[in-house]
Amino acid sequence: MIVSITKKELSIIIYLGALLGGIIGLFQGFVTVLIG
Q1: DSSP letter string, the chain
Q2: What's the pLDDT tens digit per position in 1-36?
Q3: Which backbone phi and psi does 17 adopt, to 5 degrees?
């Protein structure tokens, strides 16, 4: 039970991390274009 909950939370954390990383990457690219 504990393992299944941990796996579910881990997958959610990985998904949110990837989503956040993508948003930050797009934002950095946008800022670079603006400055450049």
Answers
A1: -HHHHHHHHHHHHHHHHHHHHHHHHHHHHHHHHHH-
A2: 677 878 899 999 999 999 999 999 999 999 999 998
A3: -65, -40
Rounded CA separation 35/12 (Å):
34
Query: What is the distance between the alpha carbons of residues 34 and 18, in angstroms, rounded to a whole number?
Result: 24
Residue showing tokens 């504990």 = 2
How far apart are the C-alpha atoms of 18 and 15, rounded to whole Å? 5
Both structure tokens of 36: 């450049």
Both tokens of 10, joined, read: 């881990």
